[in-house]
Amino acid sequence: MESTKINKLLEKYFEAETTTAEEAQLKMYFSQAHIADEHLPYQPLFAHFNVQKTSKSPTWKPTVKQKPLRKWLSIAASLAIVVSAGIWQQQNSRQKEAALLYEQTKNALEMVSINFNSGAQEISHLKTFDKTISEIFD
User: Fold this and answer.
1) Distance separating alpha carbons of residues 88 and 37, to the nearest angstrom
2) 16 Rama class: left (phi>0) / alpha (psi -120 to 50) / beta
3) Burial code of 88-98, b = ≥16 C-beta within 10 A, e = fewer?
4) How far is CA 18 from CA 10, 22, 27, 35, 65, in A?
5) CA atoms within 13 A on the CB side of 96
6) pLDDT reported for residue 91
7) How far is CA 60 from CA 55, 56, 64, 65, in A?
8) DSSP states along the chain
């Protein structure tokens, strides 16, 4: 390429007035092995663009920081679940215990009722005995 044309492109480049096609011409010129001595100071600049073009930037992964409020809410929710399960278990065992006590009381009262009824039949014989004694002593 002509030295004067490169000089004009460099002036436009540093004034930020070049098009992408003109910048491509400059990059192509500075990637050649033979460059005019006056343009050698600019070669590292354009060589840097070629290196940057071929190198891959490291992948950026944003770090996820859990907000303190969210952390405490998670702990509170877990605690609420555990407490609810404990209360439910306690109520369930109380209901089972109450049902067992009801059955035992029912059986005991049935036994008392049976014994009371048999005792009442025996008392009816005492009434006739009492009647006879009152007839004798009266």
Assistant:
1) 89
2) left
3) eeeeeeeeeee
4) 9, 6, 12, 20, 44
5) 6
6) 87
7) 15, 12, 12, 15
8) --HHHHHHHHHHHHTT---HHHHHHHHHHHTSS---GGGGGGHHHHHHHHHHHHSPPPPP----PPPHHHHHHHHHHHHHHHHHHHHHHHHHHHHHHHHHHHHHHHHHHHHHHHHHHHHHHHHHHHHHHHHHHHHHH-
pLDDT, tens only, 22-44? 888 888 887 787 888 888 888 88
At 46, the amino acid letter reads F
Model's pTM, two decimal places? 0.37
Instruction: State the amino acid at position 117 in one-letter form.
Output: N
CA distance 99 to 91: 12
- Cα separation of 80 and 71, whole Å? 14
Tokens of 25: 């011409």
Joined tokens for residue 55: 């190198």
- Residues 43 and 15 sit within 8 Å (Cβ to Cβ): no
Both tokens assigned to 95: 């209901």
Q: What is the mean pLDDT of residues 55-84?
A: 80
